[in-house]
Amino acid sequence: MSDIRDEAESGEAVSLAPRAPVAVPRVLALANQKGGVGKTTTAINLGTALAAIGETVLIIDLDPQGNASTGLGIERRDRRVSTYDVMCGEATLRQAVLPTAVPRLHIAPSTMDLSGLELELATARDRAYRLRDAVRRLNVDSSHYRNESFDFTYVLIDCPPSLNLITVNAMAAANAILVPLQCEFFALEGLSQLLKTVEQVRQTLNPGLSIHGVVLTMFDARNNLSNQVVEDVRQFMGEKVYETIIPRNVRVSEAPSYGKPVLLYDLKCVGSQAYLRLASEIIQRERNLRAAATV
């Protein structure tokens, strides 16, 4: 893990010194209703990169498939308390939190039970705010749990590939949305639908919600279509698109089968280096946002 920290701190663009814990975490929801765009891969590896530069990170796995949990080495038999229990009000979020092999990176795992949550909460008046309320209690609960005293500085929510009640909960709980977007045909069509949903949530549930940025994933420089998608998305979204582009990389694809983030599986591969740059870019945007808020 120290190698990752060294690699992260060698970047020229941003000073990545660890900062003191904060009382309220920044909550970023990774959302896109399309499957296979890199949401889970980005959540795992961005969380690892942020932890490597001194942040204390929680990944909330809200996908019933539980790929984020599996990708961080959490066996299904160990998911005794899951995000399903949290959303049903049967457990606090802190009770669901499990450590991972990455220092300062934790996960609240999911199970297949989440797939029936929408029906179970259909008549609940607070059904859209279950996750928001759980996240608000997170650091308070943490300070009184098993004599541990730490605050999460970032919460990353891995959303399912749909715009259902679970994703709406994530958006209602989030400060901002991070959109992984695969460099493929119809990318902009899916993005337009997501932006409409974000606007609806902003108007009805979460006035402070914003788009943090769009990260282009699975980029293949040999493919003319990939280059055209990058150009089109940058023209459509402007500065909201991160400069960092995540390339197609076999090491990124292999890592989850070993229950590891790619940054632990192969730090030197191009995929790992891209996620370190993305973490650096996100930290810089966060600093810019804080600076603008104080003006």
UniProtKB/TrEMBL annotation:
The source's superkingdom equals Bacteria
Q: Which residues form the AAA domain?
A: 26-211
SUPFAM superfamilies in alphabetical order: P-loop containing nucleoside triphosphate hydrolases
Which InterPro entries would you find in this protein's record? AAA_dom, DNA_Partitioning_ATPase, P-loop_NTPase
A Pfam family (short name) is AAA_31
Matches recorded under PANTHER family: P-LOOP CONTAINING NUCLEOSIDE TRIPHOSPHATE HYDROLASE, PARA FAMILY PROTEIN CT_582
Q: What does this protein do?
A: Involved in chromosome partition. Localize to both poles of the predivisional cell following completion of DNA replication.
Tell me the protein's name.
Chromosome partitioning protein ParA
Q: What is the lineage of its organism?
A: Bacteria, Pseudomonadati, Pseudomonadota, Alphaproteobacteria, Hyphomicrobiales
